[in-house]
Write a structure and sequence with these properties.
The structure holds two protein chains of two kinds. The longest helix of chain A has 16 residues. In chain A, the strands form three sheets. Chain A has a seven-stranded mixed beta sheet with strand order 2-1-3-4-12-11-10. The two termini of chain A are 15 Å apart. Chain A is globular, with a radius of gyration of 15 Å. Chain A has a single domain, classed as Class I glutamine amidotransferase (GATase) domain (Rossmann fold). Chain A is α/β, with parallel strands linked by helices. By secondary structure, chain B is an alpha/beta fold. Chain B starts with a helix and ends in a 26-residue tail after the last helix. The chains are: A alpha/beta, B alpha/beta.
């Protein structure tokens, strides 16, 4: 059976993720209601404003279905705002993250928009550097012991994986380089091979 | 050097930084990608006009993706008259320090010194806005000169593409600010979106003439013909007063909403802000919109935009 991947479409650049996955010929849908999440093999929380997305997750009752999705060891990926939302703790008070991934995150680490930048980053599992776009990006301050660091920028982790959960503080959906999307699709493969 | 050569020299290296060239062959276009990329992150969201840090906090708590700092909300500018300028840097700094979401601020059309001040303060996005009194009767700001990205207003596709040609990384259709009347916002959004479809379907030999007729850069017309969309994010502004207004514009095809006076001139700004945010997410779901629209108190008092004299229309500013 083909996989079903969904991108949380409450706010942010969900269309860009969908375009990337469509190029990989993976069926992908916009997720607007909690019921849709239950049918998925993989879920992406896209870039956007973490305070906004986090608030909408709560108001429209997505918390439980996302927890369940993670507990069933289904693939989950957060980019930028998505990473903030998946984190266990933040250095800031707001928003309250879901606490699914054992990392501590600092929002807007690099400063304001004029400090946004692009850089080639080496990512574990990719043979050539990945052009990473950092837009008011967060960094990871601390990782738990089951979290594997996949990439670093200036000494701070900016791409990590823990079992079925992937997080990147940059935006692979903006560059047209599909290798990290491919990595995510492979994570779903792994789950079925393990079974 | 002839004038023509000067122009090509000036435009050429900078146009290479844009994403309508072949992005894959140009790894060093980070500036453009992060400028237009921030606008991508705002999609499906609401940007709210605020005049001080207290209002900014309310907007952030309601789920705004960004706040727009300005001296007075448009309906007050309309009422009070006089020259409307960039806000006091003190107020903007207060707003920058009070919220964690991106902060936009308005500069007058053509007033690059105001824009320089905003950039220097660390403002995340500059709105070169017709809501303020224009500072230059002939020229808009050369937005390529800035690291800070710009959003600009447009009433039609030609205007939108001229602004993008000058370096705007985001467009908002103008509507008629400060009226609470949605008709102009709808007109401008339909005008831009409809025209894009028209160009997409034009035979190639007509494209140069179309570029000439609407006064738009030819390269951008070619790009739109190919992709069927603007090369930057397009929001709607000017007249949004209810959740249903936001849903209407989103269904017409804009990617997000600016609300000016609609929030803080309504009876209960917290509730209205919250409801417009929700409606912008679930714009396509009438059942949700029923609940979202209930019990909000009265919307801002409106002015019918067709009854405003032409020379008082803010949308006519800019060219």
């Amino acid at each position: 059976m083909p996989y079903r991947i969904g991108v949380l479409a409450l706010q942010g650049d969900f269309k860009e993720h969908i375009q990337c996955l469509n190029q990989l010929k993976v069926y992908t849908e916009e997720i607007r209601t909690p019921e849709q999440v239950k049918k998925l093999d993989g879920l992406i929380i896209p870039g956007g404003e973490s305070t906004t997305i986090s608030k909408l997750i709560k108001i429209f009752n997505f918390e439980k279905v996302i927890y369940d999705h993670a507990l069933e060891k289904k693939a989950l990926w957060g980019t930028c705002a998505g990473m903030i939302i998946l984190a266990k703790t933040l250095t800031e008070i707001n928003p309250k993250p879901l606490g699914l991934l054992d990392i501590k995150v600092s929002r807007n680490w690099y400063g304001r928009q004029i400090d946004s930048f692009e850089k080639d980053i080496n990512i574990v599992g990719l043979n050539k550097p990945f052009r990473a776009v950092f837009i008011r990006a967060p960094v990871i301050q601390k990782v738990g012991k089951n979290v594997r660091i996949l990439g670093e920028e200036n000494g701070y982790p900016i791409a990590v994986r823990s079992d079925n959960i992937l997080a990147t503080s940059f935006h692979p959906e903006l560059t047209g380089d599909l290798r990290i999307h491919d990595m995510f699709v492979n994570m779903i493969d792994e789950k079925y091979i393990k079974k | 050097m002839s004038t023509k050569e000067k122009i090509t020299n000036k435009i050429k290296p900078k146009a290479e930084n844009t994403n309508w060239g072949n992005i894959k062959n140009k790894p060093d276009n980070g500036d453009w990608r992060s400028k237009s990329g921030l606008a991508q992150m705002l999609k499906g969201g609401v940007i709210m006009d605020v005049v001080d840090s207290e209002q900014a906090k309310i907007a952030e708590d309601a789920g705004a993706v960004s706040v727009m700092a300005l001296e007075r909300v448009p309906s007050d500018i309309r009422k009070d008259g006089g020259v409307a300028r960039m806000s006091d840097p003190d107020l903007i700094e207060g707003i920058l320090n009070s919220v964690s979401i991106p902060v936009m601020a308005k500069a007058r059309i053509g007033h690059f010194a105001e824009a320089q001040i905003l950039q220097s303060m660390g403002v995340d996005y500059c709105d070169e806005s017709e809501v303020l009194t224009p500072a230059d009767n002939s020229f808009h700001i050369n937005k390529w000169d800035f690291k800070m990205p710009f959003v600009c207003g447009a009433t039609n596709l030609g205007e939108a593409l001229r602004r993008i040609g000058e370096g705007a990384a985001m467009i908002r259709t103008k509507g008629e600010a400060g009226t609470g009347d949605i008709v102009q916002a709808v007109t401008h959004a339909r005008e831009v979106i409809g025209h894009i479809k028209k160009i997409q379907n034009m035979p190639e030999e007509q494209l140069m003439t179309e570029a000439k007729n609407i006064g738009a850069p030819y390269e951008l017309i070619l790009e739109i013909h190919k992709t069927g969309e603007l090369p930057v994010v397009n929001f709607a502004a000017g007249g949004v007063a209810t959740p249903a207004d936001a849903a209407l514009l989103m269904q017409i095809g804009v990617q997000g909403i600016f609300v000016g006076s609609g929030i803080f001139k309504s009876e209960d700004p917290r509730k209205m802000a919250d409801a417009i945010v929700k409606a912008t997410t679930h714009y396509n779901d009438p059942d949700q919109l029923v609940n979202i629209s209930k019990g909000l108190g009265s919307a801002m008092p409106g002015i019918e935009s067709n009854k405003i004299d032409d020379d008082e229309k803010l949308a006519a500013r800019g060219w």
